[in-house]
Amino acid sequence: MLRSAIDLLQGLIARPSFSRDEGATADLLMQRLAARGAAPQRLGHNVWARAEGYDPARPTLLLNSHHDTVRPAAGYARDPFAPTVEGDRLYGLGSNDAGASLVALTEVFLALRTRPLPFNLLLALSAEEEVTGAGGLRALLPRLGPIDMALVGEPTSMQAAVAERGLVVLDCTAHGRSGHAARGEGVNALYIALDDIARLRSLRFERESEVLGPVGIAITQIEAGTQHNVVPDTCRFTVDVRTTDAYSNEETVALLRAAIRSEAVPRSTHLSASAVGDRHPLVRAARAAGRRTFVSPTLSDRASMPFPALKMGPGDSARSHTADEYVLLSQIEEGIDVYTTYIEKLALEYGKTLG
Asked: For residue 72, what is the DSSP state?
């Protein structure tokens, strides 16, 4: 299994797969899954396959990771598309994020797809994760039918992320009236924006997530004015909002709008916070497999899933999007072993649950 996983990962690295342009890696995944008898299907650049013996009466476990990458960081000293093994390291763009998770999940799916389990296995290798694109997992999910839970492959050093914050970006505009600065004319939109920014910095929501804590609000950009002697009639600023499961993204936006005078327009509201409770079989299985649970600081395709999901995979999140990205071969091997053990533990949990 390890040799096959490494070979597939090297093939993925050698094919550029920037978000929205993953055709070459999707072709490779289709070929490899078909060669192993898995009858893959495709939507755009998303590839998926079902394990044998699908039964709609059983719950379904989704195994998901992504095969798109960001563009290479400016500091690359190596060819990002030349998979190179040096000792225990495999270098190449996407090796860590999230190629290692993808190939490990794929090998485990292929090994277990004919085994009797108390749930259906569904493998989805998705596109556009790095840009949260509409043509990625969000487009694919409606085609996959009912899903009860998911295991999302991202670099977490094989520890179990049981929660992650959501994200809403607000483009805000304060409206004033222009005038001559020397005569004190007009209504300064910059001052309105500064008052709103002060309100947002001190804003506290009534409810707080037990797992994720308070909603996080950060002002990250501001722009106003055309010249020094003209009072600006507009001021634009950007708000980065890290949402929690205490409020829906739509509720969070409504509360923020009510707190300020400026117009606030969300870029999207689909990247929702998620948290899985301690009693859920996903979490119980993680602990039974010896995994530490934690709250993830990073977003993933988990944010688009309207069902319980746990994030776990080989590699180190700190190496994602860095120059000369690499993953350890030993981490891929560990990933295959832990994923296998985890699914076996989950099957025991669901065996108990289902009697």
From this structure: P
Question: Which residue type does 309 have?
Answer: A
Structure tokens at 21: 């342009």
- What is the full per-residue pLDDT of the chain (355 aa) written as tens digits? 999 999 999 999 999 999 999 999 999 999 999 999 999 999 999 999 999 999 999 999 999 999 999 999 999 999 999 999 999 999 999 999 999 999 999 999 999 999 999 999 999 999 999 999 999 999 999 999 999 999 999 999 999 999 999 999 999 999 999 999 998 899 999 999 999 999 999 999 999 998 899 999 999 999 999 999 999 999 999 999 999 999 999 999 999 999 999 999 999 999 999 999 999 999 999 999 999 999 998 889 999 999 999 999 999 999 999 999 999 999 999 999 999 999 999 999 988 655 4
Query: HEC string of 134-161?
Result: CCCHHHHHHHCCCCCEEEECCCCCCCEE
Please measure the distance between the N-terminal and C-terminal CA atoms of the chain and give it in whole angstroms.
Answer: 32
CA of residue 34 relative to chain centroid, distance: 27
How far apart, in whole angstroms, are the C-alpha atoms of residue 270 and residue 272? 6
Report the half-sphere exposure of 45 (CA within 13 A, side-chain side). 23
Instruction: Kindly report the CATH class assigned to 2-164+274-354.
Output: alpha beta
Q: Which of the four CATH numbers 3.30.70.1280, 3.40.50.360, 3.30.499.10, 3.30.70.360 does domain 166-266 have?
A: 3.30.70.360
Helices (H) and strands (E) in the chain, counts: 8, 18
Pairing mode, if any, of strands 326-328 and 166-175? unpaired
* Annotated domain spans of the chain: 2-164+274-354, 166-266
pTM of the model: 0.88
Q: Under a CB-based contact definition with an 8 Å cutoff, are residues 298 and 304 in contact?
A: no
* Contact criterion met (CB below 8 Å) for 318 and 254: no
